[in-house]
Amino acid sequence: MDSTVGATGAVYAIRRELFEPIPEDTLLDDVLIPLRITRRGYRVLFEPGARAYDRAAATTAEEFARKVRTIAGNFQLFARERWAMNPLQNRLWLQTVSHKGLRLLLPLLHVGVFVANLPLADGPLYGGVLLAQALFYAAALGGYAGRNAGRRTPLLSVPYVICLLNCATLVGFLRFVTGRQRATWDHVSRPAGGGTRRVEAHAESGRGGADAPVLRFEAAPNATGGTIMPWRNVRSFLYNASSVRQNAPAASGVYGIFTPHEWIYIGESQDIQARLLQHLNGDNPCISTSGATSFSFELVPAPQRAVRQSALVLEYQPACNR
What we know:
about 40% helix; GIY-YIG endonuclease; about 10% strand; alpha+beta; four-stranded antiparallel β-sheet; two-stranded antiparallel ribbon
């Protein structure tokens, strides 16, 4: 459609005359205000040049609390703004329902699918489906058991995160119906080591149309008490063979491989492109099983590569450099 559903609460701008007061206990003001503006016939646009920095949650518990608050806000939004569920009144109805509404039904859908599968489990097809569900929840338990490990396995962490979001939905619903969810945000803890860490979520376009999320952290104090320069190249590219051949230079420098949530590996090479292709071919098991999605690089003269790599590893602590 012509508009986004909501905005980024940390940074968005509206015309002064379009603002209207909202209840003081509103949980998702960055959704409610833009949604009401679209109802008046205006558009809400994404501006890729506007960037906001937020402190990442240091623990799973803090991230869970964030999700609970957001989901409680979704329940509050639909309870108060019932017009948003009417396709005749909300031109962004499909986006609103698919992006904000369906996630609230996921716990019921998961339980419903599992229960409905039980009486059909005698057949080979539905028996296999039931087994797949059992393995999924077993993997989620494995992800829960290893949630504090330095390295995370996607086969365990993805089911764990999905189940965690379902639990957050249930808790968010209870917080909403009991009125126990506060409208203000709680501050998150500082990451270990005392340094400030900021995550930038932003999309950069690479040559050839390759789009990848940028993961960039603010410099943390180093062992000498100073700070290390962050990455000098803020562009990132999809981590696959085609993108590497198209975007990575066959030149001296350092490179970083990451997911939208963490740095996986930072290396150095005389030929960045060739080295990345070697990683894609499985020369490093840690990288191969990490679920890496993106890469970035800096061109660095050969005599300075090792020093620059060590500085970046010290700053960002990639999972596969430990």
